[in-house]
Model the fold of this input.
Amino acid sequence: EPKKSEEIIRELEKGKSVFLIGCSGWKNFCNPGGEVQLQGIKKEMELRGVGFTGNFLVDALCNKGLDELSLLRKFRQVSRSHLVLAMTCEVGVQALAATVGRVVPALRTLAVEGFEGLLGEKEPCRLCGECLLDLSGGLCPLYFCPKGLLNGPCQGADQGRCEVDAKKACGWELIYKRLQKEGRLEVLKHYAEPKDHSEILPLIRLRSGVALEMMKE
Done:
């Protein structure tokens, strides 16, 4: 669902140039930011003083390869922009952030219909509806940190590896490096409020387990 205009304006730094990108979604599955929605938010943001370097619509932003190929056609406009405002689910935001750098989500993601796995991960978005991707370098702390920490790392990481699962890199170390690359380490001072877990679905493996138990009954 769309964020409130005031919320988007707060996340867009005053005077910064913005490139607007939408996702038409997969036919018959989802339509997070088609042409009508794209032009609607563009007009509203321009009335509020936001300057756009351009706008573009991609079929499925959750596909990194498609993002890269599509944005080559708009390379100059994107390269002149300080950030990208994306009308897509948070799966698409993360795929886009890996390609273009800083991305501000224009939507709240509470559900992802259709093909959620196009990013190449099992569940890169927890669908919390309170996205922190703009403050975490496009890497979801709920997903990349097994403990789901929202305000920095614990003290258990060892040589960059997570104490919960040594096969995984510390999620917050990845976030730190991404923000360092973007020159935005100051955003780590932001305090993230605890999540409203009543809106967050359990992990797929837990939902599957519950479904199996119900079938047995």
Notes: The beta strands are 18-23, 52-58, 83-87, 103-105. The longest strand covers residues 52-58. The first helix runs from residue 5 to 11. Confidence is low (pLDDT under 50) at residues 206-212.
